[in-house]
Amino acid sequence: MGSTYSCTNQLFLEDEKTSGVESKNQTKLSGDELEKGIPGLFAIQSDGSVARSSILYPNVDACQAYGDGVACKDVVVDSEKGLIARIFVPRRQKHEEQCSIHHRLPVTVYVHGGGFCMFSASTVIFHEFCKKMAQKANTLVVSINYRLAPEHRLPTAYNDCFIFLKWLQSQARQKDRSIVDPWLDCYADYSRCFWLGESAGANIVHHIALRAATEDLRPLQVKGIILTQPFFGSETRTISEIKLDNDENVIPVALCDEFWKFSLPLGANRDHPYANPINEILPPLSKIDLPRMLVVVGGLDPLRDLQIAYVNHLQVAGKNVKLLYFEEGLHGFAFFPHQEIYAAIMETYVVRFMHRNSKQT
Known about the structure:
Rossmann fold
């Protein structure tokens, strides 16, 4: 399949110069962007550096104790690029399950959201979500840190996450167990992998899945992909963007536009395939082998119509994709206390999806 997908791979790996990235992978910010940013989220200083706020969602440290049933730690994936992953392991109930080839755990790769510009694996809402998934799904969760825009415009986040997948593959292939991460060596079942992304993270997982279809990632076997409220865009306004934009409870469409302005390659608009997957260049999706998919959509998310169009696009291409729709769900409802009932239902469906597909060959 690699030869039939060379065009999309070319787009994914587009030259960093066309993405507004210098040789050191730092975005060359234009004059009108300096000393600007998105108020309350991040500010671009006069020297081009970016100051991000952590008031909205603070960061939390990793803790290797099992005080609440899950231990976690940070591991270095690529020191040159500053890429770090956070690994979550649930407490094993029986002593013989602590480290046994017969009691290994599925591996769930989690990619956080934040409009490509904000947050990390240590951001409290994503940290807590990964802990819950580790417990509820009885899975080893590996949450990825990728470099953020506007310093690192797309496709940097895509490339960073694929670097992580190649690192995970190298861990699985490594013959010298003394240099393998001990948690992965002890607990990881690489024949049962899942990719789970939220918002911008779901967008990243979509693009990673397209590239993975052209690569040999063995012994990693991806059993399923879960996209929760993927962050997509389009120059053409959808009905949901128009109708829901006046609701003070939803993510403003203007804020989405700002995220795209600061994250897309310089000169690109929201119809670029990074934003609008319906505009993926040839070959068609029907020629790409994708794992089973679950797409979660909220009815009060302005991006709802784009997400449903994406699901329809996959179904027309013959992909095995299921839609989980919450009529009253806001964008990011999994992290809102007043929508915790929807979050709990979603988590139940995600766990069920993972358990069912773990058994598939």
